[in-house]
Amino acid sequence: MRTLVTGGNRGIGAALLTEGEARGHEVIGTARSGGDWVLDVTDANMQRDVAARIGRLDLLVCNAGVFLDKGKALADLTAQDWADTFAANVAGVAMTVQAQRRNLSAGGRIAIIASIMGSSERAGGNGFVYRAAKAAAINLGRNLAEDLRSDGIAVGIYHPGWVRTDMGGAGADLGVEASARGLWDRFEALSLERTGVFESFDGTPLPF
Is the CB of residue 41 less than 8 Å from the CB of residue 96? Predict the structure, then answer.
């Protein structure tokens, strides 16, 4: 599959590139700075430029995101925390899909990397901004699945696990390689019959 992964320069994104290439897929990753495919997902001009240059895609992976309120108490959150997080984690996903829609045809797939932290049934009383943004990303994915069904494009929403990255921290219980292997299994299994799923990297169905 010809694949574009946003935020593909480090962490889970970089591992997705490595795993996809090992499986024989053509995988292109973007980064906010440096490299051949520079993309700030909140920048409409950059989105249009990448979409015009990238051409036909079989799979779009919306992976880029931020966790700006990690470790912050409710009293310490700022309006900018909310604005910047929702811009990257929600609007950034929508803008990426909007820009790349021209490059996806019937049979195409969209994977949104969300988080179990966005599940309303798994409230933790912390990470307020990140949780709210991921909940919105899950909702966005569900609505995209319905909207794009008639065009033959499947949408899946995935939790990568608690992964040892800059975002997940050194104490996380999963390496990026294991997460990427599981996520690619999910991407390869995604179809119109499964569109709108919210699953963990290992295939476990998750509550919305």
Answer: yes
Looking at the chain, how many residues does it have? Answer: 208
Q: Token pair for residue 125?
A: 């009383």
Residue-wise pLDDT tens digits, 161-175: 988 777 777 776 888
Both tokens of 202, joined, read 């290992």
Residue owning tokens 């820009």 = 99
Asked if 60 contacts 37 with a C-beta cutoff of 8 angstroms, the reply is no
**Exposed/middle/buried for residue 77 (C-beta within 10 Å: 0-12, 13-18, 19+):** middle
172 by DSSP, 3-state: which? coil
Place of tokens 């899909």: 97
Q: Is 204 helix (H, G, I), strand (E, B) or coil?
A: coil
Q: Which residues contact 162 (CB under 8 A, 6 or more apart)?
A: 168, 172, 173, 174
**Nearest partner of 28 among 54, 65, 64, judged by Cα:** 54
pLDDT value of residue 159: 97
Tokens coding 72: 């912050």
What is the average pLDDT across 127-137?
97
* Residue 37 token pair: 């495919």
Which of 42, 21, 62, 50 minimizes the C-alpha distance to 160?
A: 62
| 116 neighbors 122 (Cβ within 8 angstroms) | yes
